[in-house]
């Protein structure tokens, strides 16, 4: 989907980990919860085509449903860090897990668009809270291993999304009740993780007394000395998340339409292949300098967009799947590199406001281009819209790459854990 998104207020303890030595399992538990949370965010992706057919939804409606998630997640990201500093990480993780289950139940019982909007809003708030509080908890649990935690989290985010999307598409295709079974299985997994969090000790050692800290939205701002680095990083992530939004909302059904394969598994496999490839590229790209990884990802994403258009025009399933893999490889490099670069250059006293500005623009990139693509697809069709969308985002990617050539290399000092 690298430093605590929270740096919107979440500050890890300076003392040693608060978790007891006999709760070493807490670290992999929180890491798994983060992966599943991102899986929850992507679970509906292969099912949007089902909703479109059953309820005669336009592409614009589908993208609006998707965008609601981004708005709710942004709100959570901007406040959850400070809230977790006041009340602790564990209460927020418990609340977020419960909210994920509630959202999944709303999906299972959905009878119309209003239910989808409600479920996505609940999940946006829940996943945003999980990412912020969970990322801060990882730093609490292993305060001297932050860089490794950030790197691992970027990988498991994408793996969680890939496994969940592919699993949801298989369950929807071959299991009973396609719009119920996938969510029910994911809900069982979340319940198991919730029981683990309930048994976990609070990891936040430096918690202030309740009521002594005023929780408020972190003010977005960017210091002048890192303005060029910020433009480079944020333009790359806006372009990457624009692609992600279209892939998670419209692309599965579009890929099936263009190739003539109506199977939900094929559409889900394309998106899962993208997410899995992104995990792989983040694992490998972590060895590169952030700037080098980001430039390679930005330029590669522009190329992958062009090849995706050609693959869809060819109507060859193997080429469409291959384009998805290439897109994921480039997306992982571009997103991970951009975020690591920004985390390396942001001044310590400005992390909250800079990351708030970063996520404000990143979520705008996730929501607005997706909705615009949906509106255009409703009017002219996605086959006519996708090449123009690809051209616009591709130019954005190339611009980010050019800005990266002018930026300076930086050695990451702070882990930045991505959102998704």
Unreliable spans are 1-19, 411-420
Integer tally of domains: 1
The fourth-level CATH homologous superfamily is: MFS general substrate transporter like domains
CATH topology: Growth Hormone, Chain: A
How large a portion of the residues is in β-strands, by DSSP E? under 5%
Please give the count of helices. Answer: 14
Molecular shape: globular
Distance between the termini: 5 Å
Main location: membrane
InterPro entries: MFS, MFS_dom, MFS_trans_sf, MFS_Transporters, Sugar_transporter_CS
Protein name: MFS transporter
Keywords: Cell membrane, Membrane, Transmembrane, Transmembrane helix, Transport
Could you give the topology of this structure?
Layout: H1 26-42, H2 48-55, H3 59-87, H4 89-108, H5 113-141, H6 146-174, H7 181-199, H8 227-249, H9 251-259, H10 264-285, H11 290-314, H12 317-345, H13 351-380, H14 382-406
Describe, in plain words, how this protein is organized in 3D:
The protein has 420 residues and is mainly alpha-helical. The chain has one domain (22-202, 223-406): Growth Hormone, Chain: A (Up-down Bundle), CATH 1.20.1250. Helix content is 75%, strand content 0%. The protein has helices at residues 26-42, 48-55, 59-87, 89-108, 113-141, 146-174, 181-199, 227-249, 251-259, 264-285, 290-314, 317-345, 351-380, 382-406. Helix 1 packs antiparallel against helix 7, helix 4 (89-108) packs antiparallel against helix 5 (113-141) and helix 13 runs antiparallel to helix 14 (382-406). The N and C termini lie close together (5 Å). Residues 1-19 and 411-420 have low confidence and may be disordered. It comes from Nocardioides fonticola. Keywords: Cell membrane, Membrane, Transmembrane, Transmembrane helix, Transport. InterPro entries: MFS, MFS_dom, MFS_trans_sf, MFS_Transporters, Sugar_transporter_CS. Pfam families: MFS_1. This is MFS transporter.
């Amino acid at each position: 989907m690298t430093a605590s998104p929270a740096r919107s207020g979440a500050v890890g303890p300076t003392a040693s980990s608060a978790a007891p030595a006999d709760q070493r399992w807490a670290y992999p538990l929180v890491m798994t919860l983060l992966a599943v949370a991102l899986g929850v965010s992507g679970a509906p992706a292969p099912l949007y085509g089902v909703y479109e057919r059953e309820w005669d939804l336009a592409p614009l409606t589908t993208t609006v449903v998707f965008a609601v998630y981004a708005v709710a997640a942004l709100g959570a990201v901007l406040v959850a860090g400070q809230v977790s500093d006041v009340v602790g990480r564990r209460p927020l993780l418990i609340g977020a897990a419960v909210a994920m289950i509630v959202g999944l139940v709303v999906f299972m019982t959905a009878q119309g668009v209003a239910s989808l909007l409600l479920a996505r809003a609940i999940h946006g708030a829940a996943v945003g809270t999980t990412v912020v509080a969970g990322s801060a908890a990882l730093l609490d649990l292993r305060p001297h291993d932050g860089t490794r935690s950030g790197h691992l989290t970027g990988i498991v985010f994408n793996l969680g999304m890939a496994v969940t999307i592919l699993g949801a598409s298989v369950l929807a295709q071959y299991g009973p009740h396609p719009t119920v079974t996938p969510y029910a299985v994911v809900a069982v997994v979340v319940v198991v993780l919730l029981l683990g969090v309930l048994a976990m000790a609070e990891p936040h050692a430096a918690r202030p007394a309740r009521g002594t800290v005023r929780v408020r939205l972190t003010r977005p701002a960017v210091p002048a000395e890192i303005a060029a680095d910020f433009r480079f990083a944020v333009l790359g992530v806006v372009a990457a998340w624009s692609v992600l939004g279209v892939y998670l909302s419209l692309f599965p059904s579009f890929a099936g339409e263009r190739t003539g394969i109506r199977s939900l598994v094929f559409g889900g496999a394309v998106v899962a292949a993208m997410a899995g490839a992104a995990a792989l590229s983040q694992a490998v790209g972590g060895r590169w300098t952030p700037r080098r990884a980001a430039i390679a990802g930005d330029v590669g994403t522009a190329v992958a967009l062009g090849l995706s258009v050609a693959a869809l025009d060819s109507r060859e399933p193997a080429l469409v799947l291959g384009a998805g893999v290439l897109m994921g490889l480039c997306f992982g490099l571009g997103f991970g590199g951009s975020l690591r670069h920004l985390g390396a250059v942001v001044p310590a006293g400005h992390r909250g406001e800079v990351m708030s500005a970063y996520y404000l623009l990143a979520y705008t990139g996730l929501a607005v281009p997706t909705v615009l693509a949906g509106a255009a697809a409703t009017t002219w069709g996605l086959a006519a819209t996708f090449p123009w969308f690809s051209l616009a985002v591709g130019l954005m990617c190339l611009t980010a790459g050019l800005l990266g050539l002018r930026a300076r290399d930086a050695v990451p000092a702070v882990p930045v854990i991505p959102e998704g």
